[in-house]
Specification:
By secondary structure, the protein is mainly alpha-helical. The protein contains 12 helices and 8 strands.
Length: 386
């Protein structure tokens, strides 16, 4: 870069929200918050002013020295800069490929209209009343065995649980679509848990109060689904067949999925609801950096992170969340060591100790391998993206 260089940007979204400018490139899902001087710098450069001319304008307007080259370097890192003069800037940011492109915003809005919310409320109230007044419908872990065959039960619950996951994520996507935003699905992970997630980073382009629709959409779909199944079970409550037992397993799976979203020490739906409420831009990342700085004091092999740009209001929340983060990760580690690992080791020892293994063990290991492959794939993709 020279002082007479001209900067070309990709199309950028800019919106003023609660006194802060949110600037982002929607097609790669990259968004940052900037002060007024940063937004003014981008606007001046977009008009075709050279770096030197833009710096002069900024220093005259804001009465302070402006390190414009450093600012442009940071914009290159987040994928906003397309060219410097005639030189194309290479970027490693992956473009978001929108899913369900034929789903129009007005069609998606039907799911989040006033009549739809009235229907959801009535269904959930009725389902809640049935659950409270019909104790036999309350799910237990034993309900997973809705048939005598462990293999059939395991394969069925595995398939149905992933159908639930994609239904949950579709509601996030539909909520984003209803606001005119694009989104995509992908397989990711939280600690050692394989999950599906919807990339809705573009939600930062809408006001905070509208983001709740997107963040609550998945949990809303889960609760409505449970309630609808409870109503069906109540209608056929006098029957005693495998279909009714399967519906109880269905409810158990969906409730576990909903409770999972409450583990906000990971980046679950409730985590995003909390960060939106407290207006935290990067609570998870700032917390990891904050704890890293604590470890750096003890062992300098841990990197030090400059958090001076994080407002003190957000730092107070980071300090509180760090306690939840540490305790939650300890609990997850204990669950892994006390339950998951013994189950895996027990099955592996059984397989290795028998010439003819049961279908149950083979199915269990098969599902385990599928999850392991998805987990490794997600970790490698995350590392490639930095």
């Amino acid at each position: 870069m020279q002082k007479d260089s001209v900067i070309t940007f990709y199309p950028l979204d800019m919106s003023l929200q609660e006194g802060e400018w949110i600037v982002g490139r929607r097609e790669i899902g990259s968004f940052i918050s900037l002060p007024e001087v940063g937004v003014e710098a981008i606007n001046l450069l977009k008009k075709g002013l050279t770096i030197g001319e833009a710096r002069k304008n900024l220093e005259e307007k804001f009465r302070e020295e402006v390190e414009l080259e450093e600012f442009i370097e940071s914009l290159i890192e987040v994928g906003f800069v397309q060219k410097i003069d005639d030189e194309l800037i290479e970027t490693e940011h992956e473009e978001i490929h929108a899913y369900f492109e034929n789903l129009k915003p007005e069609q998606a809005q039907i799911l989040f209209s006033k009549p739809a919310y009235v229907f959801y409320t009535l269904v959930m109230v009725l389902g809640g009343m049935i659950l409270l007044t019909t104790p036999q419908f309350f799910p237990k872990f034993g309900d997973f065995m809705f048939v005598d065959s462990y293999t059939v039960a395991l394969l069925t619950t595995f398939a149905v649980s992933w159908l639930f996951v994609f239904k949950h994520e579709f509601y996030h996507l539909a909520a984003a679509k209803s606001l005119g935003l694009d989104a995509q699905f992908r397989i990711s992970h939280r600690l050692y848990f394989v999950v599906a997630e919807t990339d809705i980073t573009s939600v930062w382009t809408v006001p905070a109060e509208k983001r709740y629709r997107v963040y609550f959409a998945g949990i809303l779909s889960d609760l409505v689904t449970v309630s609808l199944v409870l109503i069906i079970m109540w209608i056929f409550r006098e029957s005693d067949n495998v279909a009714l037992r399967f519906l109880k397993a269905f409810i158990l799976l969906q409730l576990i999925s909903t409770l999972w979203q409450c583990l906000f020490f990971m980046q679950t739906d409730v985590y995003y609801i909390i960060t939106n409420y407290f207006n935290c831009k990067n609570l998870f990342g700032d917390t990891v950096a904050f704890l890293g700085n604590k470890l750096h004091r003890v062992w300098d092999r841990f990197s030090y992170h400059d958090l001076s740009a994080v407002p003190e209001r957000e730092m107070r929340i980071v300090r509180g969340y760090s306690v939840v983060f540490v305790l939650g990760n300890i609990a997850a580690a204990l669950f892994l060591l006390s339950y998951v690992v013994p189950r895996i080791v027990g099955t592996l020892s059984r397989v290795s100790g028998e010439v003819r293994t049961s279908y149950d063990s083979i199915v269990f290991l098969g599902i385990l391998c599928i999850n392991a492959v998805l987990l490794v794939r997600s970790v490698l993709r995350q590392r490639r993206q930095g």
